[in-house]
Fold these 2 entries.
Entry 1:
Amino acid sequence: QVQYVESGGGLVQPGGSLKLSCAASGSISRYTMSWYRQAPGKQRELVAGITSGGTPNYADSVKGRFTISRDNAKNTVYLQMNSLQPEDTAVYYCNSRIRYVDYWGQGTQVTVSS
């Protein structure tokens, strides 16, 4: 069973940047990896995903601002977030679906506020 540990969240001013990391307990090279987020009172939503081959996809709300990447040698997935806005405030979760089972990290809080 794979485990994920997210890090890199924090408090940032509007327009600022953060880079999130998701470290896996085992190899992720075969899996599509995703970042989700959940704001207070809202449903969890997909932010970005990256296939095993490195093809990314993004939610419309973050296109052009966020970049997902992966380092299979380090079993780590990243989310570079630029031009952050207050509406990006949420808990960010790392995810993979393996054999129809969703695996989640514990999440990392991102707060965008002046």
Note: The radius of gyration is 13 Å.
Entry 2:
Amino acid sequence: QEHLVESGGGSVQAGDSLTLSCLVSGGTFSSYAMGWFRQAPGKEREFVAAISRSGRTIRYTGSLKGRFTMTRDNSKNTVSLQMNSLKPEDAAVYFCAADSRLVIASSDGADYRPIDFTSWGQGTQVTVYV
């Protein structure tokens, strides 16, 4: 059973950048499609980005494309989410997710849903102040 641990969250000023990381253990990392989701207080968990097993295909939710960048390093069992020009509305708990059957075939398409991923981390808090 894979185990996901997020890190890198914190409190930053609007306009700053922050990079989140997710370390995966207990499985074959290169066999997982990976995703990032976020959840603000009182709101549903929402899709941020997903990356294919090879790292060559990445899908972003439309509103974050261009500001957020997701990458993976299969040699280190990690995925990262670089977040630039952060806004107060980006404040949320950010979750890393994995799935062994999901195929990220295209960078275009609908947002993935939480139900598309089977394994989750505990989340890391991102706070953005003005």
Note: The first strand starts at residue 3 and ends at 7.
